[in-house]
Amino acid sequence: MLWKKESNGNDSMYVDLYALNGGRASFDKVDCFARQGKPSSTFNKNGVVSLQKRNEGDKYFSQGKWTRAMELYGESLCYAEHGSKNVNLAYANRSACFLKMKRYNECLIDIELAKEAGYPANLIPQLDQRKEECLKAIDEGAQPVMFEPKLSFEPNENFPCMANVLKIDRDAQGDLGIFAKEHIDVGQTIVVEKAFMTYLYTHHGWKCNICLKEYGNFVPCKKCTVAMFCSEECQGNSLHKYECGLRYSDSVMMNGFIMRVVRGCLLAIDMFSDADELMTFVEQAISSDRNQIPSTLLDEKSQYEAFLKLPIKPASTEHHEFMINLTIAFSAQKLLMRIPRVNSMFKLEKYRRFFMHFITHQYQVMENNSFICGSNHDDMDDDYVPFESRTGLMIGYKKHSCAPNVMVSRTVGHKFGLITVRPVMKGQQILHAVIVPLLTLSKRERHQILWQDRKMLCKCARCEGVTASKVLCKRIQSDPDYQYITQQSIPPTRGDDDAKQSMQTMIDKCERFLRQYGQTAWCNEFGRVVTIYMTLVDRQ
Ligand SMILES: [Zn+2]
Ligand SMILES: [Zn+2]
Ligand SMILES: [Zn+2]
Question: In the chain, is it the N or the C terminus that has fewer CB atoms within a 10 Å radius of its CB?
Answer without folding.
Answer: N
